[in-house]
Amino acid sequence: MNLASDRVLAVFVVGVIGVLIPGLQPQLLGALASEGRLSVSALGTLATVELLAMGIAAGGAGFVLPVSRLRAIAGAALLVTGGIDLLTPLLGIGALFGARIIAGLGEGVLIWIAIGFIIRTDRPERWSGIYLAAQTLAQFALASVIGYVAAGSAVGFTALGIVTLAGLLALPRLPRAYTPLEAGHEAGGTPSARGLIALGGVVAYLAFIVAVWVYVEPLGFRHGIAAATIHIVAPLSLAMQVLGASAATLLAGRLPARATIMVVGLINLALLAIMAAPPSATAFVAATALFGFLWLFALPFQIPIMIAADQSRRAALLIGGAQLTGSSLGPLLAGLLIGDQDVIRVLWFGAFCAVMGIAAMVGAASLRAGMARSLNEAA
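Structure tokens predicted for MFS transporter (379 residues):
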């Protein structure tokens, strides 16, 4: 599908707004916790329900929403989500959960619009990389503003609401409709058993990443690091994520995917050890920054692993849903594990998920490749 540059820009503006909240959760939810409006365990649960709602909407919107009315759908999603963002600082704990679930559904619809464009292009992997870098750059910019002001949850959610409502300005340039997908691009049936194992690995890997990310600020405070230093962790990590996405765009296809995922996993385990017992505040900040770089650097390498595990590409087509599912389950399970105990437990949980995720992805892909070689030799 070919669109004029202004229409592509409008699609990306809408799609990027839909995915701002995951990069801002440590600041916004951390502020709610520091203000006494949210317990540490509830922080993980609230992060989970919003991400899960995003995943449900992003994956299920195509079954209930027509691609022939994109402007109306995007307008409604922006209005609802932006309005809830503005109201969030005024809500009590009960209403807070319901409101963020509704916001997550709206955000998921906005993501669905961006994905709908990407999968219709001739080079979806290229556009996926651009989308990844754009969303991270936007998260970094907004997180930097919020971190600079450092005035609590009210300012943070208000800024998010204003940016979301500003997305309405892109509606006149948004495509009115997408063309139907060609039959050859439709995925029928379920992935193979190896594909499902690889997808499970993606779920576990993203559970590790997002669980640790959501608890970065409480971890820093647990080590007695000054609030002024903690406030730079999120924007710095997001800046490194931009660099990681850019590096992955350049190197994906040039580095062996399985070896890259394993090396990244080993480095991440070392970073978790530093976060557990940082020799200094600088070491903690540096570890979280490198953690952010590796987060987005690793994601593009998961796609060739999915294809190696399931050459029908059905697993690869489901990778976005698997990533969102892992992103939502990670904080939930970590919150249940931590309860009112030491927040350091999230690092043990993260290490377990990282090892299991990488083993599942690499194992499924290696098994598939090994079977293919055996069949070729037999022939």
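Residues 345-378 form the longest helix (34 residues).
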